[in-house]
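[agent] plan:
  1. take the single chain provided in the ticket
  2. run structure prediction with default settings
  3. attach structure tokens to the ticket
  4. add a short note for the reviewer (M.T.)
[agent] executing step 1
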Amino acid sequence: MIDWIQETFLQPTMIQAVIIISIVSAIGLYLGRIKIFGISLGITFVFFAGILAGHLGITVNKDMLFFAQNFGLIIFVYALGLQVGPGFFSSLKHGGVVLNSLSIVIIALGLILALVLHYITGIEMSDMMGLLAGAVTNTPALGAAQQALIQLDPTDTKGVTDMALACAVTYPLGVIGVILAIIVLKALFQNKVATTTPMPKDTQTYVAEFGVCNPAIYHKSIKEIMKLTDRHFVISRVWRNGKVSIPTSDTILEEHDHLLIISVRADIENIKVLFGEQENVDWNKADIDWNAIDSQLISRRILVTRNRINGVKLGSLRLRNLYGINITRVNRAGIDLFASPNLRLQIGDRLTIVGEANSVNNVGKILGDEVKRLENPNLLAVFIGLALGMILGSIPIALPGMSTPVKLGIAGGPIIVGILMGAFGPRFHLTTYATQSANLMMRQFGIIIYLAGLGIDSGEHFFETVFRTEGLLWLGVGFALTIIPVLIVGFIASQFMKIDYAQNVGMLCGSMANPMALNYANTTVDGDEPSVAYATVYPLSMFIRVILAQIVLLLLGAS
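[agent] step 2 finished; step 3 output follows
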């Protein structure tokens, strides 16, 4: 019995590695439920559970630990790319430009401060990158920096371990520092908390009723009228003599017709000029029974589940002319999109369709509308993406003035491919859709395995590092890297750029990849503006930090 216990739990075998990593992960997840002053480190406790295991002398097969740790990171960053991909490029447009610009300033200030402190304190650049990764609570950036260090010197295992130790030392203060900054900003700009306004809604879908009283469009078809404007909108219903119908592009409009139009809010004034009059009826209330407007017509949400529809332009299906229905809006990942002819459909899209019952049912058969299909994970895109991500990450990129080519590595390659697959995969009829829970499962599993392996590998020398002069210096430097850029940008955004408090703190949390601080920020305001701002800047900030960590080390080395 004793021999079995020693062989199973103490001998560095494959079985022992799986058991130890699983136990460390389970303990860390359990401890992650604990909140101190309403704050919890969540799955980051897995990292510290691994450190404790390493400190207690528990050793794991190095090859197994190396594979598990790195494969976990690869899965996490790729799944992250898939998640943010559909909204990555759109987040760079419209109101997101200002918020993303501010987040880039935070990243730049943090990097400049890190370089300055490197020369002032003499802390090695590799350790400084570890401190920066912990200060901004960004373990994928740590993984990317470690890969860059290995690329520079494959034998520098001590440098890789010390980098992880530096991250572990500053990580808790990284969480607390952003929360302290939010408290300071709330105290300075508390008058703006009560007057917080939501983010601009000009690009959101909007429903309005118009009366046709412009003689210039009498007796013209909808197709002819659409050529008179550069605005895009959908005419959902036409009322004439008390009867409602679904129009097609050949429908002729007459004087006194009433139209129900779906557009973006910013185009309403232009549409009013075109048709002549907007009725004072609120068609955007949540409790409207669309099916009660006319007994002959129904409104129903249909799910896109058929693979051959994936990536197809909405206009090319000609559903309106063939079936006499209207697609009023498309909901993708909780966001309502305007149903323009050039919109490419994706698996998982929910289309709101208006028409006669038989016609709507027939369109449902074309689009799929089979919920069970979405329950099956589309693993083909996952494995293709992982392979392409690793290939991209291993390509050497020669830069002028550098003796060593830059490689995106196991963190940079997969996240770029994940973003591209999420954004453009449907155009090549590649199904990248995954339910929110499936994507979260993949991300959480990957990062937990990575954190467990990272902690076990770093734990042996953790406490002796913290409780020495160098460790105290690391704590001070890490806290400065967290709070100084956040306070500077947060103050400028509120005081000079007049960005309201809710958007400001959401942007700060997103640029620091700090969901724990976001949870606190959400408790200080009514509404979800901090979460919206967080989601706006998070993808680009995460991408820049992962890539930047590698570039800095490859440019400046481990000096």
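[agent] step 4 note for reviewer: The first strand starts at residue 205 and ends at 212.
[agent] ticket updated
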